Amino acid sequence: MLDLNHPLTDPIFAAGGMEDVLLVNAQWMTLLPSDMRLLVLGDCLVVLDKLRLLNQEHFQASYFLFEAIDEMQAALESIAHLKGGAILVDKTDGEGNCAICETPIFKFGPIPNTDRVIVVCDKCIAPFMSALKKLESPKGFGTCFI
């Protein structure tokens, strides 16, 4: 159980919020045209820098966390540059197949008590998800517990 009075509680919740922002952005990036992917990537790079600072200030500059954040950045950059930046199709409606790998787009929702619908290419986001699992792990920020 998470101790809400522990000195790392606030940084863990902050990390969780940033992980969620990155996840939603990565999901959208798998569906957007290349020019929009680059804009979203710019937003993600700002959040990744905040995670690095959080690690530096509250998690004893964990080498594991720095590596996982770098892996996440590489995954996001890879998604942004798929097909050499020549994707012209917007698949955010969740219809049909991915413009990159041609696998069916996953669409779920709306999520109960919200109007949020999850739309993503599961195949294209896989490298990002691997990095996210490391960040969420007990060895990472520990956000898997919240």
Would you kindly provide a brief summary of this structure?
With 146 residues, the chain is mainly alpha-helical. It has helices spanning 9-29, 34-58, 63-80, 122-136, and strands at residues 106-108, 118-120.
Any chance you could write out the topology, listing elements then pairs?
Elements: H1 9-29, H2 34-58, H3 63-80, E1 106-108, E2 118-120, H4 122-136
Antiparallel strand pairs: 1-2
Structural class: mainly alpha
Supply the number of helical segments. 4
The oligomeric state is single chain
Strand content: under 5%
Whole-angstrom Rg: 16 Å
Strand order of the largest sheet: 1-2
Order of helices and strands: HHHEEH
Q: How far from one another are the termini? A: 9 Å
Q: What's the β-strand tally?
A: 2
- Estimate the helix proportion, in percent: 40-55%
List unreliable stretches of 5+ residues.
none
Mean pLDDT: 94
Verbal overview:
The chain has 146 residues and is mainly alpha-helical. Helices cover 54% and strands 4% of the residues. The chain is built from four helices and two strands. Strands 1-2 form a two-stranded antiparallel sheet. Helix 1 (9-29) runs antiparallel to helix 4 (122-136) and helix 2 runs antiparallel to helix 3 (63-80). The longest helix is centred in the first third of the chain and has 25 residues, at 34-58. The radius of gyration is 16 Å and the shape is globular.
